[in-house]
Amino acid sequence: MIRGELKNVIRDAVRNNFGNIAIPDFSVEIPENQEHGDYATNAALVLGKMLKKDPMEVAKLFIRGLEAGSWKLEAAKPGFINFWLSQEILNRELAEILKKKSGYGRGKRQKEKIQVEFISANPTGPLHIGHGRGAFLGDALASTLSFYGYKTTREFYINDSKTSTQIRELGRTALGQGRTYLTESLKKKIAKPRGKSKKTEASEAGYLLAKEVQKDNQRFIEKKLKIKFNSWLSEESLYKKGWTKKIASLLAKEDATYEKDGAFWLKTASAGDTEDRVLVRSTGEPTYFYSDLAAHLNKLSRGFGKIIYIWGADHHGHVARTKYALKLLRMDGKKLDFIITQ
């Protein structure tokens, strides 16, 4: 709040000294070294460059024009202005804190809607410490954005597609054909009848078991971690509700795919990627990348001005290819931000 006030005071000083000119962007920051003040600005540096004047002379003009009493001022080479807040300002701000309490610093209501997607663990077992890091980072970031006035929603993306390699492997575990995800807690779930028969396919068995694992994880997130999600987006629902077909239609419209070695490839190399990416394997099974594009389309259709993804380090290489794919499909990739945590 004080930083914003300082910016307004500096703009007024520019107009008083140099008339109604276009004021270039400048910063007001908290110096790392406390000897350089409570705040410091580069306004004299950027203005001096624009006006072709000595930044130190511009800084001295600023100091003479800025109101005294509220802060102590100092010009520092090569043209910074350092501010020390007066006791009067500190007392005033303290009074505001006591008055507004937990509402102190809250932003005004913003029009932009923001979504934060985080955790999004595969429903094949309990959460681990890596998920925990992403969980608290996402929740804290969403809370901060809400506090600053943005209409913020939290979303968990459930990788539960029946075409998923993990879901099929979970199904094989459930049917006694594998042991990849076998744990004591999973054994208890497998022992309970869930409408499966000897003819049940691994994909269907895995999907049914994943729903039970997801219920446990959701209870843990809500009861133990105290995190409340606004929506839980199912990957399988993207297939059922036609979002993957919409992506297929976009791909055809943009002539963005080709067939090679029995697989379907996306021409991401033409958009700047290091290579083209597989969308549908030679076995006919879609990749995660294919349904991920459908998920991005689904999110963008909901009117978010910004979508923030918090991913684990194993998804680091996925960021660039996603941006290239969105560029190829003429989707607004600028609305997407990716935070990698480990």
Written overview of the protein:
By secondary structure, this protein is α/β, with parallel strands linked by helices. Helices cover 45% and strands 17% of the residues. A five-stranded parallel β-sheet has the order 7-6-5-11-12, sandwiched between helices. The longest helix has 23 residues, at 202-224. The model has no long low-confidence stretch (mean pLDDT 90).
Record keyword descriptors for this entry.
12 helices, four-stranded antiparallel beta sheet, five-stranded parallel beta sheet, elongated, 17% strand, 342 residues, single chain, alpha/beta
SSE arrangement, N to C: HEEHHEEHEHEHHHEHHEEEHEHE
Strand order across the biggest sheet?
Answer: 7-6-5-11-12
The overall pLDDT, averaged over residues, is 90
What distance separates the N and C termini? 33 Å
* Assembly category: single chain
**Largest sheet composition:** 5 strands, parallel
Compact description:
This protein is of the alpha/beta class and 342 residues long. It has helices at residues 2-18, 43-51, 55-65, 87-100, 129-147, 165-174, 184-191, 202-224, 235-240, 243-253, 288-300, 316-328; strands spanning 28-29, 39-41, 71-76, 80-85, 113-117, 151-158, 231-234, 257-260, 263-266, 277-280, 306-312, 336-341. The chain contains twelve helices and twelve strands.
